[in-house]
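Thread amino acids onto this structure.
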């Protein structure tokens, strides 16, 4: 049984088919021919465990697509590997700064693709298992008072994460996270992070 799912986003139909054939041996594979098509899938809650994303696409390039993916509830921490025909370091640096976890130059060898995918899936699953927390009976009431983004930040704060760590993991600016935390505290009428933890999590 194939446990993990992968979404491949590329306007090159030959590469799309090649990647699908390679990955289908071990994973459930979905494909999208454009950033817009991929966002439609994700917004319908077809959420993969990992995304392979081409940089050079018409209408919406890989950088723009990645930025929009990170805004979708449930997609913030999905590992995204850029696929590109560009081998210059500037593209790699820009991709990693944008929030990609890795960078594979096309055409790629099957062994390299499979090894990179496996490695990042393992890391993602480790993060997910560490992220699992038991919520208190009050948590759902708190969730109703917050926006989806505020709720994600509140969960992270309750887990003991500092603003800088939250900003880095969710690819937000430090100032944005700081302002959101202040807004959450104001809405819940609390002053300390420990208060939020006690409200959110089971003892």
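Threaded sequence (203 positions):
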């Amino acid at each position: 049984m194939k446990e993990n799912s992968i979404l491949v986003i590329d306007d090159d139909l030959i590469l799309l088919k090649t990647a699908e054939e390679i990955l289908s041996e071990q994973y459930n594979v979905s494909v999208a021919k454009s950033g817009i098509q991929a966002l439609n899938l994700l917004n319908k809650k077809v959420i993969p465990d990992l995304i392979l994303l081409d940089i050079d696409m018409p209408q919406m390039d890989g950088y723009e697509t990645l930025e929009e993916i990170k805004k979708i509830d449930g997609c913030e921490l999905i590992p995204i590997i850029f696929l590109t025909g560009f081998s210059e370091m500037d593209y790699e640096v820009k991709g990693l700064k944008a929030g990609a976890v890795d960078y594979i130059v096309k055409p790629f060898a099957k062994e390299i693709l499979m090894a990179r995918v496996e490695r990042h899936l393992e890391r993602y699953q480790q993060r997910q298992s560490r992220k699992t927390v038991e919520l208190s009976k009050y948590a759902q009431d708190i969730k109703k008072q917050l926006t989806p983004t505020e709720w994600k930040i509140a969960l992270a704060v309750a887990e003991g994460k500092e603003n800088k760590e939250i900003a880095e993991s969710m690819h937000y600016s430090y100032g944005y996270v700081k302002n959101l935390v202040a807004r959450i505290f104001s809405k819940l009428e609390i002053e300390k992070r420990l208060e939020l933890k006690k409200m959110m999590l089971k003892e």
